[in-house]
Amino acid sequence: MSLILNSVISLGAMGLLFGSGLAYASKKFAVEVDPRVEAINEALPGANCGGCGYPGCGGLSNAIVAGEAPVNGCPVGGAETTAKIAEIMGQTAQEGEKTVAKVICNGTCNNAKEKSEYYGINDCRAAALVSGGSKSCQYGCLGLGTCVNVCQFGAITIKDGIANIDKDKCVSCGKCLEVCPKSVIDWVPYSQEVVVECNSEEFGKDVKSKCAVGCIGCGMCAKACPFGAITMEGKLAKIDYTKCTQCMVCTAKCPTKAISGELSKRKKAVIEEDKCVGCTICAKKCPVEAIEGELKQKHSVIEDKCIGCGECAKKCPKDAIKMK
Ligand code: SF4
Ligand code: SF4
């Protein structure tokens, strides 16, 4: 009986001792967690996609609080998440246009020639290891969908032999850019419709023999652009999206239709007569002389000449021009 009593007392004493020790240690060695980390974690979507470059949402929360990542570091959450995180961090969120991934190749089954047949596993990286893939253009999209498989947001589909990205579903995580063995996916501003859809670095003659819609490096677009938005980088035309007004002059000029943009959707300037004071600023700013009117008289737009660049609307001091 006394043996049982002794055991209970000694076990109880040991329990009390270890319990107090653990309670003391948890207080003494506790790691302080910044409450902002938890708040940011809650604000993040919890997708843990790694698109921010950190190991999951927790990694990004820590990095933001440590000042190592920006408040808009989450590509999935969008503006709403950025605003919440900025508030937690006591900052003002920078509003900017979303940048999305875009396949810069239009080498569809009809447009691009095949040089061989590929019978290996359905993966662009594997296919690229076999003489660069089956397409005769070594710079084009192989269309086997390695980007489709890696996109967690269902934004990519294969259509007519090439990958297509739905810009409304793209969260800019960059996973597709990482896996594409042809580096044929690039970042483009969300509203950018005018894009050189070619990635080839070959001479025009070779491009032409392989693809009906490739950039042949003739430079006609660069010469025609009224805003100096196109430069020739090697044999390929490149658009500076910060300068491009989407006037589509290049789209119309390009002899091989390598530049996207639907001319039928081009906007036109419309002058609201009741607001126009005839200052002539719009006529002076229009790069294609599409505005007519006398000083102190109502001005009007010559619709056939207007390229929809919006330069007049930007400069009108009376806000009398709308792009429609
Ligand atoms: S006009 Fe067309 S083919 Fe010529 S350089 Fe520009 S994009 Fe290339
Ligand atoms: S759309 Fe107009 S502004 Fe933009 S690159 Fe083409 S020609 Fe230049």
TrEMBL record:
[4Fe-4S] cluster 3 binds at C151, C170, C173, C176. The complex is composed of six subunits: RnfA, RnfB, RnfC, RnfD, RnfE and RnfG. Residues 161-190, 204-235, 237-264, 267-296, 297-324 form the 4Fe-4S ferredoxin-type domain. Its cofactor is [4Fe-4S] cluster. This is Ion-translocating oxidoreductase complex subunit B. Binds 3 [4Fe-4S] clusters. It comes from Tepidibacter hydrothermalis. It comes from the Bacteria. Residues 32-91 form the 4Fe-4S domain. HAMAP family: RsxB_RnfB (MF_00463). Keywords: 4Fe-4S, Cell membrane, Electron transport, Iron, Iron-sulfur, Membrane, Metal-binding, Repeat, Translocase, Transport. [4Fe-4S] cluster 2 binds at C137, C141, C147, C180. It is found in: Cell membrane. PROSITE patterns: 4FE4S, 4FE4S_FER_1, 4FE4S_FER_2.
